[in-house]
Amino acid sequence: MQATLHYFSERLRAASSNAAPVRFRGGGSKDFYGQSLQGEVFDTRAYRGILSYEPSELVMTVRAGTPMVEVQAALAEHGQCLPFEPTLFGAATVGGMVASGLAGPARASVGTVRDFVLGVRMLNGLGQDLTFGGQVMKNVAGYDVSRLMASSLGQLGLITEVSLKVLPVAPGEATLACDGVTQAQALALLNQWGGQPLPLNASAWVHDDSVQPAQDSLFVRLRGAVAAVESAVLTLSAQVQALGAMTTRMDGRAAAADWRASGEHTLPFFTQPPSPETCLWRLSVPQTAPALNLQVLGVPGHPYIEWHGAQRWVWAPASQASALRDWAHSVGGHAVLFRTSAMHGEADKAVGVFSPLDAVQQRIQDQLKKQFDPAGILNPGRI
């Protein structure tokens, strides 16, 4: 493996000298995400394997080209997991998981990818081998560059090794399906519950047009100590039923499949866009943001809401970028064009995938990029 790392370093040195752009690629599961891809493909999968894993210490160090399925299988053998539920979208690698920074349904309750990164080893744009952070949870030495790599989309360097904090699987879990809860009611309940000592782990609100009459449903997952979960089931059920809605405790296996489908975007909401010209937008807003009336913005349909109100998915054409971004900005958030439409594809990205940064944020980002990648060869234009 040392020979592979040396090859990676030499290849980056040559690319930097020749000003030849490269784009890092593991399993290719996130190729759709971000602006258009540029540069020669730099495959990272040859550098793989779990370097160390001590379950009692709750820390795993792994090479970035390792498939995520191998990491999750090793953790499962010891009753442990990555609690933020990394979004894979296929044959994802550890490096891609960190670089994309995408997390699943539990993210609002347990934290995001960067919160579980303890340290990284990486190659910068000059091919230099750098190490940041460490392999312990209390590490305060130097700048927190290791977590800066989360969501960087490979623009700061090639992640080669990552140390991750892991946690035991919660002993208790239950999912409540609450039918007949409107979007406004769901947000009010989630904000109320968020201020109480409840083991609230994940939530999702959806408007289902496939049944007649159409139905609004709120799904809530509770995780923690068994006694706490059972008590919360009774409390939440009573409060939902007081609104005239109906609650059902879902079968554990069925609920697990649904939450996985939510994170991996295999639910009907994600696989059945309303028309071929609509794009999938992700609106990241405060949990207390008001209900989103898409018709007011000139967009048909209803949002799919996760993260206790903080993540709202919307199908809308790229031409509605300004309306969506203005609304998100008005409540203190931002909007990302997550997937392009089937009709227009890459042309949709002309409106910009990510919301523009202000002048100060842009200057900081540009300076960081210059420090790590002086020649500007790493995943150019991806962000």
What does this structure look like?
The chain has helices at 2-18, 68-76, 94-100, 107-110, 145-148, 183-194, 226-241, 252-264, 268-271, 321-330, 359-372, and strands at 22-25, 40-43, 50-54, 59-63, 80-81, 117-123, 129-133, 158-165, 167-168, 172-179, 200-208, 215-224, 246-249, 279-284, 304-306, 311-316, 334-339. It has 383 residues and is an alpha+beta fold. It has three domains: 2-168, Uridine Diphospho-n-acetylenolpyruvylglucosamine Reductase, domain 3 (2-Layer Sandwich), CATH 3.30.465; 172-253, 2-Layer Sandwich (Alpha-Beta Plaits), CATH 3.30.70.100; 273-351. The radius of gyration is 22 Å and the shape is globular. The chain starts with a helix and ends in an 11-residue tail after the last helix. 40% of the residues are buried.
Strand content: 15-25%
Domain count, please report it: 3
Report strand order across the widest sheet: 13-10-12-11-15-16-14-17
Order of helices and strands: HEEEEHEHHEEHEEEHEEHEHHEEEHEH
The CATH class assignment of the largest domain is Alpha Beta
**Estimated helix fraction:** 25-40%
Low-pLDDT parts are none
* Rg: 22 Å
CATH-defined fold name of the largest domain: Uridine Diphospho-n-acetylenolpyruvylglucosamine Reductase, domain 3
Structural class: alpha+beta
Mean pLDDT level:
94
Count up the helices.
11
What is the CATH architecture annotation of the largest domain?
2-Layer Sandwich
Overall 3D shape: globular
